[in-house]
UniProtKB/TrEMBL annotation:
Protein name: Peptide ABC transporter substrate-binding protein
Lineage: Bacteria, Bacillati, Bacillota, Bacilli, Lactobacillales
Signal peptide region: 1-17
Similarity comment text for this entry: Belongs to the bacterial solute-binding protein 5 family.
Pfam families to which the protein is assigned, alphabetical: SBP_bac_5 (PF00496)
One of the protein's GO biological processes: peptide transport
GO molecular function: peptide transmembrane transporter activity
Keywords tagged on the record: Peptide transport, Protein transport, Signal, Transport
Residues in Solute-binding protein family domain copies: 83-463
Keyword Plastid on entry: no
Length: 546
């Protein structure tokens, strides 16, 4: 493959050879390697950017971009572990494990304002506030009164976060959380410039001009609809001396084939691989495949007559040959999954066994069982012919997925007709939120490595539960896992396994299809790109051009 990035001699770049330090900073040898090359890359985003508001994002493409331009108390280091970011030091913790007190570094927003503790407090309140409408509101349940506030049983001012002063942030938790640092890396826990947010109102985050960040890069050229934008090095970032890329040109490339063609032509330095293209490039030295704790699934609308029938849902799930789909259609390292919690994600706290292996398979592909459930469902519904619409975003992966599902269901379930509807991602999200769907294909990537981050997706009070699943016993079980059993790890683990069995085997509330992997093409000259197994997909903070 030809060299795609021009090399120029930059005398000023010699100044960048200073030694790095702690917190994931790179060493001086890497700085010298980066010093002789123009630090400009062009990368693909698999979908459009829908928002820069960390309270309103619902898709991975927006979350990824927010992660380039905003930074919270922690960030991910090169080993994918949490490390200090805006937090100046590890917090002091009360004896009961409920009160965390953080001191903040001196850092700035991209408009020059200082980052203060109140920026975290107001951001968290935005997420939990019922009137704000964040789909991540349940994430704030970790804080004292978080759930009560989003359910309208407590005032927003009773949330367990407060600014002691500009540099001191206090958090009071609802229950002890030993993995709190992992949680706080998540996008919903990013700060927002309180003053700027108030000034912009509902326009905040809708364009680059209506946004300020405090992360390693600054965004420009995005007006809310454009499919190209630019990230440039943030000169006011607290750790800017260890950010080597000067410019990242981002363009939306929804079709995998288009991305590979642009990469081969030298017009992209990073783009994703999937399905037949993953198979085509599997032996390429520029191809990389990383397992990911992401699950692709079908979400049935529980509030509609047909998809509200449990036997319909079980029939659909067991009529799809997921093994063939993962191997022959995706071909990117993805695997079939018969549960909602992925493998190699969380381990039994007592014996170290993987959650997926320990909990086994639920409603795996079984054509005979599927057809039996289908005939029962048709009798219960009094219907012989059924038509359902399957909704998805218009990305290449989404289209291939729903086309495969359509073929499987129409072939294996007599009297069923599936019509397909592919729309831009934001339209799909809007239709989901409004409940205007029968079946919808989506993916879920957790923010931290605990099974509850998957299972609470279907909490009846979760903003993400657009399916309308409502099982009081399931909700109570989640509450037990969060609070009652917080200090009894093995009992909590057993409860989480029981909840997944209820979600899939008993209620078929969600219909998991596959566990994903990230396949991507990367230019040889692009070094130290961070690609994450969960949470956000990619970070350019440590990357450089050799």
């Amino acid at each position: 493959m030809k060299k795609k990035l021009s090399v120029v001699v930059l005398l000023a770049s010699l100044l960048l050879a200073a030694c790095g330090g702690k917190n994931g900073e790179t060493d001086s040898s890497a700085k010298k390697e980066a010093g002789n090359a123009e630090q400009v890359i062009t990368v693909a985003s698999g979908g459009e950017l829908s928002t820069l508001d960390s309270a309103h994002y619902t898709d991975v493409y927006s979350s990824d971009m927010i992660g380039q331009v905003v930074e919270g108390l922690y960030r991910m280091d090169k080993n994918h572990d949490p490390e200090l970011a805006v937090a100046a030091s590890e917090p002091t913790v009360s004896d009961d494990g409920l009160v965390y007190t953080f001191k903040l570094k001196e850092s700035k927003w991209s408009n020059g304002d200082p980052v203060v503790a109140g920026d975290f407090v107001s951001a968290f309140k935005n997420v939990v506030d019922p009137s704000f409408g964040s789909s991540s509101s349940n994430q704030m349940d970790i804080f004292k009164n978080g759930r009560k506030i989003r359910e309208g049983q407590a005032s927003i001012d009773e949330l367990g976060v407060k600014a002691i002063d500009d540099q001191t942030l206090e958090m009071t938790l609802e229950y002890p959380i030993p993995y709190l640092a992992q949680v706080l890396v998540g996008t919903p826990f990013m700060p927002k410039n309180e003053k700027f947010v108030k000034e912009k109102g509902e326009d905040y985050g809708t364009s680059a001009d209506n946004f300020v960040g405090n992360g390693p890069f600054v965004i420009s050229g995005w007006d809310g609809n454009t499919e190209t934008w630019k990230l440039t090095k943030n000169k006011d970032y607290w750790d800017q001396k260890n950010v080597k890329l000067d410019t990242i040109n981002v363009q939306v490339v929804k079709e995998i084939g288009t991305g590979t063609n642009l990469f081969d032509a030298g017009d992209l330095d990073y783009t994703v691989l999937a399905d037949t293209y993953a198979l085509q490039y599997k032996d390429s030295p520029q191809a990389n495949f990383v397992p990911k704790a992401m699950v692709g699934y079908l979400s049935p609308n529980h509030k509609r007559e047909v998809t509200g029938n449990v036997n319909v849902r079980k029939a659909i799930l067991q009529a799809i040959d997921k093994e063939t789909f993962a191997k022959d259609i995706l071909g990117d390292g993805s695997t079939a999954i018969n549960g909602f919690v992925p493998k190699d994600f969380a381990k039994d706290p007592e014996i170290g066994e993987d959650f997926r292996k320990e909990n086994g398979d639920f409603l795996a592909y079984d054509l005979e069982a599927a057809q039996k459930s289908w005939e029962t469902a048709k009798k219960e519904l009094g219907k012989d012919q059924i038509e359902l619409e399957l909704l998805s975003a218009d990305s290449a992966l989404a289209k291939k997925t729903i086309e495969y599902v359509q073929g499987q269901l129409q072939q294996n379930l007599s009297g069923l007709k599936i019509t397909l509807k592919s729309v831009p991602l934001q339209n799909r999200l809007d239709l989901q939120t409004a409940g205007n769907f029968d079946l919808v294909f989506g993916t879920w990537t957790p923010d931290y490595a605990d099974p509850i981050n998957f299972l609470e997706f279907y909490d009846s009070k979760s903003g993400l539960n657009t399916a309308g699943y409502n099982n009081p016993e399931y909700d109570q079980g989640l509450n037990d896992a969060r609070i009652t059993l917080a200090n009894e790890p093995e009992k909590r683990w057993d409860k989480l396994k029981e909840l997944e069995e209820t979600l899939i085997e008993k209620d078929a509330a969600v219909l998991p299809l596959y566990q994903g992997a990230i396949g991507y093409l990367k230019a040889d000259q692009l070094k130290d790109l961070q690609v994450f197994p969960f949470g956000r997909t990619v970070s350019y903070r440590l990357a450089y051009v050799e």
